[in-house]
């Protein structure tokens, strides 16, 4: 039993450190290639090789120093259960450090790569696939590891409240007000992405079907974590994908795209069951993404699907309506039926 826990601990730590360092190495290496080409094509030509290896060495030094000075001490304090880190269990310090140390510099170098090419009349690399996908995939992996490391990975076992989903799509209809049998729990539109702390969400209506298709009724919260983590980031993934479009990448629009995409990444810091996730999802993602997508469509055409634009619009409207407008006297019509 002890060896299994040690193996799971080591696997989680290796995956998280790889998610911290690999995207940085890839993004900075691609940036170094761009700088080397700029140096080589300058008048008079500079030493592109020196610039390349200087940036690569800087990336290695940055990862090494942050790992030794920030990442390892922070991990030590988390596992030693320091009260100021885990007392309230409403935020994830590992995720916060990751977003600051890895995602922020990666997005900064993506913006810098665009500006370097624009200022030198180059169109060499738009970072369309590997680097950007690696950054976002590492975000997803960090999210999954943080949520599933508290679960048993073998056999049938209950997950702790920390191993829960961002959405409540599996919850019973009796949890929503206005439906007969409601237990009285309040509902918010963003609850579809935050109200899942209770592990009863996976036990409220166990399947009793015993027919030949009973295997199709299989469900496990640990497997659902993987699906939910990818779904949670799809809007951000689509926004960052738009930045890889050549007409967008070599324009000033790359700034708001990456800035607001980074802001949406800050939601990772909040625990999946936190009630703050509802409003943060609207303020940090849907509302800014709505205006950015309207601007992108106005200037570049349909470089982003209308589906995501409608998603941002409807989520914002629904959040305001169900959380605020329905509390006004004019919308409170319950007394008409009594």
Descriptive account of the structure:
The protein has 338 residues and is an all-alpha fold. The chain has one domain. It is built from 11 helices and no strands. The longest helix has 40 residues. It starts with a helix and ends in a 15-residue tail after the last helix. About 13% of the residues have low confidence. Keywords: Membrane, Transmembrane, Transmembrane helix.
Count the strands? 0
Structural domain count: 1
**How much strand content do the residues show?**
under 5%
Uncertain runs with pLDDT below 50, 5 residues or more? 164-207
Give me the secondary-structure category. mainly alpha
**Shape label:** globular
Count of discrete alpha- or pi-helical segments spanning 4 or more residues: 11
- H/E series: HHHHHHHHHHH
Determine the N-to-C terminus distance.
60 Å
**Rounded mean pLDDT score:** 78
Instruction: Sketch the major β-sheet.
Output: none
- Rg, Å, rounded: 23 Å
- Percent of residues in helices comes to 55-70%
């Amino acid at each position: 039993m002890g060896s299994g826990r040690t193996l799971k601990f080591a696997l989680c730590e290796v995956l998280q450190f790889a998610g911290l360092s690999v995207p940085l190495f890839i993004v900075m290496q691609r940036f170094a290639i761009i700088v080397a080409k700029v140096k080589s094509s300058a008048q008079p030509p500079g030493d592109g090789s020196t610039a390349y290896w200087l940036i690569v060495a800087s990336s290695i030094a940055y990862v090494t120093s942050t790992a030794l000075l920030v990442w390892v001490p922070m991990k030590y304090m988390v596992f030693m259960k320091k009260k100021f880190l885990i007392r309230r269990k409403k935020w994830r310090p590992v995720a916060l450090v990751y977003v600051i140390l890895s995602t922020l510099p990666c997005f900064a170098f993506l913006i810098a790569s665009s500006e370097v090419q624009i200022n030198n009349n180059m169109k060499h690399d738009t970072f369309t696939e590997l680097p950007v996908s690696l950054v976002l995939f590492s975000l997803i992996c960090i999210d999954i590891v943080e949520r599933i490391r508290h679960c048993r990975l073998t056999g049938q076992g209950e997950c702790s409240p920390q191993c829960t989903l961002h959405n409540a799509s599996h919850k019973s209809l009796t949890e929503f007000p206005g439906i007969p049998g409601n237990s009285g729990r309040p509902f918010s539109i963003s609850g579809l992405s935050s109200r899942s702390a209770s592990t009863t969400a996976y036990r409220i209506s166990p399947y009793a079907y015993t027919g030949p298709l009973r295997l199709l009724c299989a469900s496990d919260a640990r497997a659902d974590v993987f699906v939910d983590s990818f779904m949670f980031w799809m809007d951000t993934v689509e926004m960052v994908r738009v930045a890889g479009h050549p007409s967008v990448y070599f324009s000033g629009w790359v700034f708001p795209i990456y800035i607001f995409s980074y802001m949406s990444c800050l939601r990772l810091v909040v625990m999946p069951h936190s009630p703050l996730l509802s409003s943060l999802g609207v303020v940090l993602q849907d509302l800014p993404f709505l205006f950015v997508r309207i601007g992108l469509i106005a200037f570049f055409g349909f470089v982003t699907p209308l589906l995501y634009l409608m998603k941002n619009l409807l989520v914002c409207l629904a959040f305001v309506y169900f959380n605020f407008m329905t509390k006004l006297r004019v919308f409170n019509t319950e007394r008409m039926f009594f």
